Fold:
Amino acid sequence: MKIAILSLLLSLLALSCNKRPFVSHVEPGDPEFRDNTAFYSFEDLSSPKFAALRSKFQLDTVFHGEQNEFRRMLLLRNWIRTVIHIGDYEESYPGDGFAENILDAGLKGQGYHCGHYMIVQNAVMNSFGYVTRCLGAGPGVKGGPDGHHGINEVWSNQFHKWFLSDAKYNHHFEKNGIPLSALEIRDEYLKNKVADVVLVKGPDRIPIEYDGVADKKGKMVKTTKEDFARTYTWIEWESFNNRFTAWPANADTLSRLNMYADDYFKTHTWIWDNKPHWAYKTNYMVLVDNRKAIEWTPNTISTKVKTDKDGAIIELRSTTPNLKTYQLKELPDGDWNDIPSTIETKLKRDKNELVFRTVNLAGVIGPEHKVTIER
Structure:
């Protein structure tokens, strides 16, 4: 009798467990999804201009079989620096703003300044599907130094963040092994003159305390890590990100500049060529109050999950330029499969672990987004 009662109680307990509702949660370590609200017109990876650029300059050979995404980016940047030598004081700069023409002239010995490196790096990185944008920066100090520097930020799927990549000097900044964005460099400079930051050069990320910059007479002048970081006191981002595929038709829109309007911006003035930056009091200066709008997160995913007694409807959202497909893998041993942005799935067990990711037209894979659905 006691055994029968115990068996009945266990059966009732099991039944009640099966009736418990499912709940879902996202892996705590997943990259934050930040929507894009401030940037427009991304490069079209289906444009034949990208295939032509890769083919003409045999860019695939730059990798030498390298599989690590971040190192691939650094190898591409290093290649640009080997093709084009620095020529800040040339009499003229042939190429008319076309990346291909600049590379052609660079291979023949023509030197270029930072803005040309920015144009080329934007084209080369985007040609492999790496979301890249063009920036201008400067120290903006009244009485000097002032001036302007053209660079790029590239979205790293590996590190889940933007990092500043300077093709002219073939270097970037890191803190604790993590590459820094332009705003993060600015933070560190304003905090303590980048005392906690390392400047690294080349694909091997060799730490350096200074780099050589030639003056008008060709004499090499040491520029310190702090001097380079001071350049990012003021930063502008091109609002329209289709410089390569739409140039020169988009020349005017490229002058529309996003600027982060924090307290420092509001209480100081960007000095450029001994006077306030040309975009002040024009429609070309676009003030962005929300830092997350500047540091939006391409290729990441946000999910909305609705469950019932034995299944779930999952809606996916991502701001991925040139999105080709979403993919899903069910843990522990499922394969990756293409899926639409909304799926209905049966829940096979009390704990279901689903991993999602984006893939763009170049085959670049975004950061993984894990959803756990359990009773």
